[in-house]
Amino acid sequence: MNRIITISREFGSGGRTIGKKLAEELGIKCYDADLIHKIAEESGFSENYIKDAGEYTPGGFLSSALANRAFGQTNEDYLWKIQYKIISEIAEKESCVIVGRCADYILNGKADLLRVFIHADMDFRAERIVKVYGEREESPEQRLKSKDKRRAAYHRFYTDMKWGDYKNYDIALNSGKVGIDKCVEILKSLY
Amino acid sequence: MNRIITISREFGSGGRTIGKKLAEELGIKCYDADLIHKIAEESGFSENYIKDAGEYTPGGFLSSALANRAFGQTNEDYLWKIQYKIISEIAEKESCVIVGRCADYILNGKADLLRVFIHADMDFRAERIVKVYGEREESPEQRLKSKDKRRAAYHRFYTDMKWGDYKNYDIALNSGKVGIDKCVEILKSLY
Questions:
Q1: Which of A61, A109, B51, B52 is the most exposed place for a label (fewest CB within 10 A)?
Q2: Torsion-angle region of B162 (φ positive above 0: left; ψ -120 to 50: alpha; else: beta)
Q3: Residues of chain A contacting B166 with CB distance shorter than 8 Å
Q4: Cβ(A156)–Cβ(A58) under 8 Å?
């Protein structure tokens, strides 16, 4: 079985950066934007559409989820299946880091997993999204809350697991307190 | 400000063992049974009584909490105050490890804290309590669930924080997956 590090993270916590650095140091691949590309290629949907769909529950954010489902499979359901298939194939092929995309759930029992959750205080994340992503909104806090909510709802919808629940992770780190480089070091030592 | 490591833990996860080993390696004190002694001395209650009270919400496990409170301060409220005072005094006096007793909440803002949560899968914990504590019950799982529930309820009652919620910790570790010695090593490197 390949050894896979899955990273779930709060928006702005640096989880993606940690995943990339970690993979680099371990000499394995980090799937993130790459993964989205692959999904796009296979599904025929545009890349931007998929990027959005990853953070919305079927049929728009919660509101019309059930209504749309009455008419059968939504686009998001279709994407979920492709995503599921691609992540399973990657895990069979190689050891790697996978950021987001419910990989922890999808690969449960199918790979030797190290399940990581990265979070940080609101202040740390607000400062970081302004600096890293150049967000210019008046209230980065509002944006963070909305993003977290969507990730949690998406995760819950497709996996029935509570996003952020300690029971689902082998290690959870506060990147604001621990520091991004130290997070990388600890995870590396655990691999 | 003194540097304090607070360890909250699921029953049977080895959190107390990790705390002791960590303190030993860092050359600082670990407060746990010692702390209970101190509380006992100051309160005049017997040690066993206090040990139990630490895992019950006021007036018995939830059921009669409000009823008893109508008549004023319960014994558990009294103990909480003493505990609060003793933990605050310890933190002013020295850097140390404190296991359990809501120290993370009590010391918030009063010390340089590293807030740790230790958990593990049911199987790991069930095997461990039989081996370490010599528990002979037919269903260690039942005992674990009941213990966790009480710790969570106690914590919630006095701190209004959700026990085990990742937001309240700087690092959460699955001791069953990571291993007890490795947990000690990681925490040591963070101190």
A1: A109
A2: beta
A3: 117, 119, 164, 166, 172
A4: no
Please write the tens of the pLDDT for every residue from A81-138.
Answer: 888 888 998 999 999 999 988 899 999 989 999 999 999 999 999 999 888 877 666 6
Least confident of A5-9, A53-57, A102-106, A145-149: A53-57
Task: Decide: B7 and B98 in contact? Cβ < 8 Å.
Answer: yes
Cα pseudo-dihedral A64, A66, A71, A73, rounded to 10: 100
- Nearest Cα residue to B104 out of B146, B166, B51, B150: B166
pLDDT-based confidence at residue B57 (cuts at 50, 70, 90): low
Task: Compute the count of residue pairs across chains A and B with CB atoms less than 8 Å apart.
Answer: 48
**Is A189 at the interface with chain B, CB within 8 A?**
yes
What are the chain A neighbours of B181 within 8 Å (beta carbons)? Answer: none
Residue A32: predicted pLDDT: 87
Cβ of residue A182 closer than 8 Å to a chain B Cβ:
yes
Confidence class for position A57, pLDDT limits 50, 70, 90:
low
Contact B156, B55 (CB under 8 A): no
pLDDT value of residue B23: 97
- Kindly state the DSSP code that residue A179 receives in the 8-state scheme: -
Q: Give the C-alpha separation, B27 to B21, whole Å.
A: 10
Placement of tokens 């934007």 in the chain = A33
How high does pLDDT run on average in chain B?
84
Radius of gyration of chain B (CA): 16
> In this structure, are residues B59 and B157 in contact, taking their beta carbons and an 8 Å threshold?
no
Q: Which of B117, B169, B186 sits opposite A186 (nearest CB)?
A: B186
Q: What is the largest CA-CA distance in chain A?
A: 49
Residues 110-149 of A with CB under 8 A from B: 114, 117, 119
User: What's the token pair of residue B172?
Assistant: 């959460």
